[in-house]
Design goal:
This protein has 243 residues and is an all-alpha fold. The protein is 84% helix and 0% strand.
């Protein structure tokens, strides 16, 4: 672009020098204006040449402008492509961030589930020992409930255990705890607890219909899930050939 402007300035300078030389020569050679006018009329073609040069300059300018417009279009296209690449990179970065956040959320949810189960398990172990010592290993009966009503420590352990189970079920239903992890780690324990405490839960729901309702529903879901998808380890006995 710089060389093109330099060429234009050279052409303009040459035209100016030639024009100045011609005018000076006419004034030096001819003394009167009529002679100078007659001599000038002889060079009408020269005017045409300079008019042509002026037209050529206009054409040259238009060509330069056209070239500049083309360069600007190319630069705009390059800028558009760069913006497009930047947008794709930002989208990929956003997707990676979202995936990382989801993975971190799942990890934290599983960790919270494991920690809560660990906190509830000792309560169930203590209560199970107390129930086994007092009533054996079967589900609670009406007579068992009457004895529990007289034992403050048993009442405390039962309420603490069932309260913990209810909170865990609420967390699973609200997607705070990992339902599948609870099923895989403690479905059997949940089912056994619910069956053993079934009569106690029914009596509590007679006073308050919402008592331990989410825990009971979660256990029913686990039972149905186990029915639809049995233990993947199977129950096939090993084949022992007859001697």
């Amino acid at each position: 672009m710089k060389s093109q402007f330099s060429s234009l300035w050279i052409i303009v300078s040459l035209v100016f020098i030639i024009q100045l030389f011609v005018i000076s020569s006419i004034f030096l050679i001819f003394d009167s204006f009529p002679d100078r006018g007659a001599f000038g009329d002889m060079f009408g073609a020269t005017n045409s040449i300079f008019s042509g040069l002026a037209f050529a300059g206009v054409v040259y300018t238009l060509l330069l402008q056209s070239r500049q417009i083309t360069i600007q279009k190319e630069e705009l296209e390059m800028t558009r492509k760069e913006h497009s690449r930047s947008a794709v990179a930002q989208e990929n970065s956003h997707d990676a961030l979202v995936k990382t956040m989801i993975a971190d959320h799942d990890r934290r949810k599983k960790h919270a589930t494991v920690e809560y189960l660990k906190s509830v398990r000792p309560i169930w172990s203590s209560l199970r020992r107390e129930l086994n010592d007092h009533f054996g290993t079967g589900p609670l009966t009406e007579s068992n409930l009457l004895e529990i009503d007289k034992d403050k420590e048993l009442q405390r352990l039962i309420r603490e255990l069932l309260g913990g189970m209810e909170h865990l079920a609420v967390g699973a239903n609200c997607d705070v705890f990992d339902r599948d992890l609870i099923y895989r780690m403690s479905a059997s324990s949940f089912i056994r607890i619910c069956k053993r405490m079934d009569l106690y839960i029914e009596r509590a729901q007679q006073k308050n219909p919402y008592s331990y309702i989410e825990f009971r529903e979660l256990v029913h879901e686990f039972e149905e899930q186990r029915r639809m998808r049995p233990d993947p380890r199977g129950t096939i006995a090993a084949y022992i050939p007859n001697p």
